[in-house]
């Protein structure tokens, strides 16, 4: 379980770094709506990642205690994605819908990249 927390901490740091870049892009480029869509999607993506880690921890604790385990919150994550879409569609002058969808996928891309980086580090240590 500590490994899951360290992975989340690393991935959260990467996502926060991306959010800072997006804020700078929204502030200093003419692509305000695109970067705001990325900020909206990535913010909700970070919330979904946090929720998944929290539910995974509770799920693991329930399994270890031989209790009935609740779900991992798939419906919640889908609802959060739908909420982000509603916000982007309601305010198209502030949020670009396609970049919001790309932002929603940010956590998954970060997880994949982090996985490959950690595997490369492990292979390097084994040599």
UniProtKB/TrEMBL annotation:
Pfam families: ATP-synt_I (PF03899). GO terms for cellular component: plasma membrane. It is found in: Cell membrane. Its main location: membrane. InterPro entries: ATP_synth_I (IPR005598), ATP_synth_I_Bacilli (IPR039072). This is ATP synthase subunit I. The chain crosses the membrane at residues 12-28, 34-53, 74-91, 97-117.
